[in-house]
Amino acid sequence: MTNTPDTALARTAAELDEFLSRRSLRESSGPADSLRVTLRPLTPDDQDEYVELVRASKDLLHPWMSLPSTPEEFQAYLERFDHLTSQGLAVALRDGGAMAGTIYINSIIRGRFQCASVAYAAFAPTAGQGYMSEGLSLAVRYAFEQLRLHRLEANIQPGNHASLKLVERQGFRKEGYSPAMLFIDGEWRDHERWALTTNTPDKAHPSLPAR
Ligand SMILES: CC(C)(COP(=O)(O)OP(=O)(O)OC[C@H]1O[C@@H](n2cnc3c(N)ncnc32)[C@H](O)[C@@H]1OP(=O)(O)O)[C@@H](O)C(=O)NCCC(=O)NCCS
């Protein structure tokens, strides 16, 4: 089954709505306004704000992550988010709705793996205020509780202390080290391999074999 970009967007929006309205989420996070951020899908309408924020965040992003910095690159980038294998999320401030950062749930593999890879970036105007920690904790719960994944991976360059701290705070464990793993900013860069697993057999995804 494939998704058109509109269908993919609608499916991600519906899954996020269902997740964010869950009683278990409200109970564990306290009243809705105790979190300062929420998650929503990245949409074509985010183009101008996104491109402007990426340009303003050039020094923060370099050399850790390359993100689209023109309207054309942004629109092409959105096409990869087909919901089934990849989802692009905005971390939005509850107060006013501005984007504090973005989180990508990529390389979703079902069957016996039930695994995805997470990537994320803060935007400079609101970085370092805990918004990404809140956003990532929501995204991790969304991935486990709503998408019913079993494992999340984060691949991080050894010198990226802000990112290493961020995943450590979420309970990710370091599993290994891969030389020349990802092509970023013109180079094949070494990465530490971090991951988090959950075990909720009663909530297994339907594509997980019975045994
Ligand atoms: C990695 C990255 C997303 C972290 O974003 P961030 O905005 O610094 O994240 P947060 O604000 O949630 O957390 C950072 C700090 O805010 C602090 N903070 C401030 N107010 C806070 C609050 N109210 N609640 C929680 N933390 C708060 C935290 O203590 C934390 O500081 P510490 O790391 O020194 O302990 C950001 O540095 C980034 O975008 N880097 C470039 C792209 C990148 O590397 N992506 C990942 C590739 S693997």
Automatic annotation (TrEMBL):
Keyword vocabulary terms for this entry: Acyltransferase, Transferase
Keyword Lyase: no
GO molecular function annotation: acyltransferase activity
Enzyme Commission code: 2.3.-.-
Keyword match Membrane: no
Pfam families with a match to the protein in the record: Acetyltransf_3
Limits of the N-acetyltransferase domain: 37-199
InterPro entries per the UniProt record, alphabetical: Acyl_CoA_acyltransferase, GNAT_dom, N-acetyltransferase
PANTHER family associated with the record: [RIBOSOMAL PROTEIN US5]-ALANINE N-ACETYLTRANSFERASE, GNAT FAMILY, PUTATIVE (AFU_ORTHOLOGUE AFUA_3G00765)-RELATED-RELATED
Protein family according to the UniProt entry: Belongs to the acetyltransferase family. RimJ subfamily.
Official protein name in the record: GNAT family N-acetyltransferase
Organism this protein belongs to: Actinomadura adrarensis
Source taxonomy: Bacteria, Bacillati, Actinomycetota, Actinomycetes, Streptosporangiales
